[in-house]
Write a structure and sequence with these properties.
The structure holds two protein chains of two kinds. By secondary structure, chain A is an alpha+beta fold. Chain A is 22% helix and 13% strand. Chain A has a three-stranded antiparallel β-sheet with strand order 2-1-3, with helices on one face. In chain A, strand 1 and strand 2 form a beta hairpin. Chain A starts with 18 loop residues before the first helix and ends in a 6-residue tail after the last strand. In chain B, 69% of the residues lie in helices and 1% in strands. Chain B is built from 19 helices and two strands. A two-stranded antiparallel ribbon of chain B has the order 1-2. Classes of the chains: A alpha+beta, B mainly alpha.
Chain lengths: 112, 385
């Protein structure tokens, strides 16, 4: 079985930690990342970089900001390599839920 | 004089630098540096034959110097990957006009709308942060944050510095036109002259996209509206179209707007801005053809599906002599929170001699009015009943 873990955070939670606590946290992340059971994963850039894509009547609607509705739930995720935001928006618009009442939120991945 | 040259050249210079450096902040910094050098030298040495090319070259060289310095400082001593030609001939042909790329970057729908607006005014209008802050009645600090947030998002998310491909162009052009028109409508509330600024941007866009009808339509619309701005207010008070003193209209600007409109129509333009410009143009005729205006509003309803447009169509129907039909159309609309819905109902009911209901509608409008001129206008209307 493969499982997806969706990691929800309180924005800015890291800043609230002391240096020592933060170091501990990074070490924990690192250890988990090294675990052979981890297939992939990424840390996302802050929520300010979010862009939401939905398709309505064949038109791609792009808006600034994260997906923020309570009705829908996380249904999946994909890591995509694209040349720029326009290219990934076009990809996102082809994900079926985007036109079936859902939203695809795009977030750039933190570069290591 | 120098200021004039600077404002004209700013967008072009910045666009070229963003294209060259691939970074908004670095480009802005380099452009500012070049303009500062020019401000120091040109008064004595004279303005160069091609100020734009001079500015771009100077800014590029400064940026390259800085990048080299920074690399040296961080002890990564190697030259830039591409050899940079140092131009000593300031020939216009070497500087590609990349303002269109810049416009599409600034008006990318992934940016917050207020960020798109601010960035467009900063990057292409050449307004400084303090001016933009003043125009939107926010502190300079707030505006600075708004601009840097937008620039940060461009960088972090990889918004491309490019004119969108043909299949993306219609949607993206809509977004650009919406930003320019938003700036124009801000100007209408009577602060810094954002109206004139929006027309500048509209003119630039029409020139950069000569084969697209909608930019010409938008430009026509803004020019015709702007031409009537002095007649729209008497002191602080709003004056309705019927009561406007036409001698205050800027007739050459109306003519210029109509010429733009003709161009847009000749290109086959039938979009929302072209139709709105047609309506604006019809409203400046000696005898106003209200039935035709109502018909144009119907087209606009078909294009936009907007209930506010439907409301305007109803007003035209009433002006064409049928207030009863207009009221029926208005009563079908779901616009209870909209001031002009209630003031329009008030006016239509008044014309139909339903005084009691008219008063109730005007009172509801007054509850929703926020600006002093609007309140005064509605109070006067109520008193006249």
């Amino acid at each position: 079985m493969q499982y997806a873990l969706a990691i929800y955070i309180e924005p800015g939670y890291e800043e609230a930690l002391s240096d020592a606590e933060r170091d501990t946290m990074y070490a924990e992340f690192f250890t988990l990342g090294e675990d052979p059971r981890v297939i992939g994963g990424a840390r996302l850039q802050p929520v300010e970089t979010a862009t939401s894509v939905r398709v309505d009547g064949g038109r791609t609607l792009v808006t600034d900001g994260p997906f923020a509705d309570t009705k829908e739930v996380l249904g999946g995720f994909a890591l995509v390599e694209a040349a720029n935001l326009d290219e990934v928006i076009e990809f996102a618009a082809r994900v079926p839920p985007a036109r079936l009442g859902g939203v695809v939120e795009i977030r750039p991945v933190m570069q290591r | 004089m120098l200021e004039e040259v600077f404002r004209d050249e700013w967008g072009r210079v910045l666009a070229s630098l963003v294209g060259f450096l691939g970074d908004f902040d670095k480009a802005e910094e380099a452009a500012q540096e070049a303009f500062a050098i020019a401000a120091e030298r040109w008064p004595t040495s004279g303005v160069p034959a091609n100020p734009g090319a001079w500015l771009v070259t100077t800014a590029r060289n400064r940026a390259i110097d800085r990048i080299r310095r920074e690399r040296t400082l961080s002890e990564k001593i190697h030259l830039l990957p591409v050899a940079m030609p140092i131009m000593d001939e300031f020939d216009d042909t070497v500087i590609k006009d990349e303002r269109l790329e810049l416009i599409f970057t600034c008006c990318h729908p992934a940016l917050p709308l207020e960020g798109q607006v601010a960035l467009t005014l900063r990057a292409l209008g050449g307004l400084d942060t303090a001016d933009i802050a003043r125009a939107f009645l926010v502190s300079e600090e707030t505006m600075k944050r708004r601009l840097s947030r937008a620039k940060a998002k461009i960088k972090a998310t990889g918004i491309p510095f490019a004119v969108p491909d043909e299949h993306r162009l219609p949607d993206r052009l809509d977004a650009v036109l919406a930003v320019v028109y938003l700036i124009f409508n801000e100007g209408y509330s009577g602060r810094v002259d954002l109206g004139a600024e929006a027309i500048r941007l509209g003119r630039l866009l029409a020139a950069l996209m000569p084969d697209e009808p909608e930019p010409h339509g938008l430009l026509a619309l803004m020019m015709i509206h702007h031409a009537r701005r002095r007649a729209r207010f008497s002191g602080e008070d709003l004056v309705l179209l019927d009561d406007q003193d036409r001698s205050l209209w800027d007739t050459p600007q109306i003519a210029a707007g109509r010429a733009e409109l003709d161009r847009a129509i000749a290109m086959g333009g039938r979009g929302a801005y072209v139709v709105q410009a047609v309506i604006a143009s019809l409203q400046t005729r000696e005898r106003i053809d209200w039935p035709q205006i109502a018909e144009m509003y119907q087209r606009l309803v078909d294009l936009t599906g907007s209930p506010v447009v439907e409301l305007n169509r109803a007003v035209a129907v009433a002006q064409a002599g049928n207030p009863a039909a207009a009221l029926r159309a208005v009563d079908r609309l779901d616009l209870d929170d909209y001031l002009y819905f209630h003031s329009t109902r008030g006016e239509l009911l008044r014309r139909l001699d339903r005084e009691h209901e008219a008063k109730a509608a005007y009172r509801r409008a007054l509850d929703l009015a926020r600006s002093a001129p609007e309140r005064r206008f509605l109070t006067r209307r109520l008193e006249q009943l």
